[in-house]
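We store amino acids, tokens; thus:
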Amino acid sequence: MPITSRPRRILYVENGIGYGGAIICLRHLVRNIDRSLFTPMVVTGRTGTQYQEIAKEALWKYITDRHIDIVGAHRAIDHLEWPDKIPGLRFVINQVLARTDDIANFLPFFIQLLWTAKIFKADLIHCNNEPLCNRAALLVGKILNIPTVCHVRGDQEGSRLMKWAFNLPDRFISVSHWVSESMQNKLQIPANKIDIIYDGIELDKLDLNAEGNDFRRIYNIGEKDFAVGLIGLLIPWKGQELFLDAANILKSKIPNLKMIIIGGTPDDCYEYEKMLKTRVKKEQLENIVIFTGHINNMPLAYNGIDIVVSASTSPEPLGTVVIESMAMARPLIGPKHGGAAEMMEHNKTGLLFVPKSPTSLAEQIYAFYIDSSLRSTISQNARSHALKTFAVDTHVRKVKEVYDGLLNNVA
């Protein structure tokens, strides 16, 4: 990097659906980036206790990206049949919602972000999510003539609007080979424009000796109970319904079974949480299924359950749950697609199940239940793999190389 009179200023923009793996990994990056070389500022589209904590680690600003809940409006309307009875009505409704989103949500966020970037004198903008939902940040970069990086964390649909958005960033960071291949195949992004960098976490700050019995006492999980934990935000594609299906299969096979749903609920998904709890009551699973909500002390939760499950029904790029549970030396089950299949070797560093199959998921849970030595062996293998693959120092170094390449080109 060329010598400058001040550290280069990086503006990070995070506007995910809720406080999950993406923002957690961003915080690991921001905490560990060299302050003699870079000054980070984080802008989030949402606020709350976890987001406000960022202010202790870096410059932080909240700019709301949702004055009107367009997503909620779509959810309320999409399942209705009457708009289809009038030709063209659903198209008109969707166009009205889209333009309302542009005027009420996108435009105010874009203007405030443009002003923030200008006052901050940003040298580079790093978007923490895919380009379409970050088009405001990417357009700010174009207007101010500063380079932009987009962190891509999921599969892409390949729509016309998506292809347009993917033309905006100067560089992409992909969290896995699977995501990179998806971008190349569906959106024709050149491979030489993509850097594959696994998310990094502060492994030394994960408390391997966290007292799991404290977690069990809080949630009335007995010493002899077999506790299976599904960790992730309560969003439909995270697989909570699949988890309940597996609970129904296993409740007669595993004595003292406890199926723990661990994770907070984004504002957009309260109806989904309500539906899950209604299911639990209707299917008489109250004595088996436990909802914890958001948990701050995750090592306590990891050590308080017997096995960890990632059950995403759509391919997930590289879930933080996979990284953390492997680093914590916990027995892990994941779907055989996306980042989980890339990171886990079946019967060596974890168990893989057929995606969307409750029967297959139940079989892998039962395999861990009947074989404690398998749980122990896989746990140790998983930790060894995690220590080599997900160290935050490696992540930060590789991200710095991306910044250096872009900033040297504009110096």
In short: The chain has two domains: 8-200+391-406, 203-389. Residues 203-389 form a domain with the Rossmann fold fold (CATH 3.40.50.2000).
